What we know:
Largest sheet: 2 strands, antiparallel
Mean pLDDT: 85
Distance between the termini: 14 Å
Structural class: mainly beta
Number of domains: 1
Helix content: under 10%
Number of helices: 0
Strand content: 5-15%
Strand order of the largest sheet: 1-2
Low-confidence stretches: none
Number of strands: 2
Amino acid sequence: MPVESETVPVGAEAPDFTLTAIDDSEVTLSKLRGKPVVLVFLRGFM
């Protein structure tokens, strides 16, 4: 499903989003506020 894409400048606050984790749980960025967070996006080949 296509989604709109936007560029976030280095050092800027990331927009809030929700993703499905590998265990099928939902992870929302805003719920992690105040905790250390490292985002790694990998492009899979399916």
